[in-house]
Amino acid sequence: MKRLIVTLLLFAAVCFAQPAVHSVTLTITNGPGNLSTDTFNVYKASGACPATGTPTFTLLIALGSGVSTYTDTTVSSGLTYCYAATAVQGGLESAYSPFFNAPIPGPTAPGLNGVIK
For residue 7, what are the CA distances in angstroms to 83, 84, 98? Predict the structure, then answer.
C-alpha cells in the first residue's frame, strides 16, 4: 500500500505598481517503507476541500520519475484551491493523498492617509 505525504508551500511575490503574482508549490514524497513510483499525478479543484466526499479534481500534471516538486502558477488572487496527489506504479494508480487547501491571498487595500469624516 502506497502512502503519500503532500506538503503545500504558498509563495507570493509582490512587485511595485503591479498586482501580486501568486503560485502554489507542491512537494510530494512517498511514505516511508513504500516502493518507488513511476510517476506522481497532481490534481487540483477550485474551491475549498470538502469535509466529506471527493472534490471534482482535474489532473494538473503527471510528474516523471525522480520529479517530486511542481509549482502551479495558474492560481488567482482571492480564491482557494484543493490539491491532492496519487502515486503511479506499473500502470496502477493509488488512492488520493489527503486533500490540502491552498487559499490564495487577495489584493490588499491601499493605505489611507489623513482622517475620514
Answer: 10, 10, 10
